[in-house]
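Reviewer comment 2.1 asked that we show a complete input and output for one of the modelled complexes. We chose the adenosine-5'-triphosphate case, as it is the one discussed in the main text.
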Amino acid sequence: MTVAEPAGHDRRPDLSGPDALRCTGLRYYFGSTRAVDGVDLEVRPGEVFGLLGPNGAGKTTAIRAITTLLPVPPGMVEVFGHDCARERMAVRRLLGYVPQQLSADSGLTGRENVALFARVFDVPRRERAARVAAALAAVGLTESADRLAGTYSGGMVRRLELAQALVSAPRLLILDEPTIGLDPIARTSVWEHITRVRVATGMTVLVTTHYMDEAEQNCDRVALMHRGRIRAVGSPEELRAGLVRARRSTGAATDGPPTAPTLEDVFRHYAGSGLDGRESTEDGGDFRDVRRTRRTASRVG
Ligand SMILES: Nc1ncnc2c1ncn2[C@@H]1O[C@H](COP(=O)(O)OP(=O)(O)OP(=O)(O)O)[C@@H](O)[C@H]1O
Ligand SMILES: [Mg+2]
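Response of the prediction step:
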């Protein structure tokens, strides 16, 4: 595979170099809303890192700060050792970003959409056609490349957006809810393409999702975010094992046969609510349902 493969990019995680991402006390407030309220986070080169949290947790705001789209003071965010405030352009050159909102133009073909990103991200003119074709091939859109994006299914649109982000050969790919609103087959397909490119290039992936099964299957480590703060970080196995220990120490697991906790249980333990935003009451019921359905049209346009 040639797509998204930066020259000289080591395919193995380089743990001796700087972190792919380091957030130190990252804060971002909208007036009195503390959207991100003191986040410390390290993402290692080559890993797939999941940022999990319910609606309004602050995931998108954190990501927009990391991608330099929201201004933050120096010292709060570094990408491969480059400060997001002081070295904005250097950071941007290292990043690929698939935003939560639609970023493909329904009036252009798939190929034209990706070519637009190749121009914006300064892919050298003589390499552009080949790089665009390789990015489209990497997400399985070669056959549909010359159709208008407005005729694509929701899953194809998400893969097109992935191609747009990959065409500049990012070292850190950031995906904000890449599979929300997609059916299970389309979700699996998006992840298969992400994984294939990641294995081929060694790029680091930071992804937000509400889907626990996706985090379990695809993330090396996850951070559980709630109300602007990180409540726990670790591999899914570590987090589940930590909850088993916590239950044992409080005697909570002594009644009945032991049940293996899920990531959702871990989240509930640290945040007092589930990833769907439902908060537990004393009788185990729910008093709030803030789950909003993303206005993801099944088709663009
Ligand atoms: N442009 C804005 N102006 C004012 N408040 C905002 C703005 N963007 C986000 N917020 C608020 O900041 C908080 C965090 O929002 P954010 O979109 O970062 O959460 P999220 O975890 O990405 O949620 P979702 O899962 O719904 O995408 C919320 O309370 C939200 O209402
Ligand atoms: Mg969001």
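Residues 182 and 297 are 10 Å apart (CA to CA). We note this here for comparison with the apo prediction described in Section 3.2.
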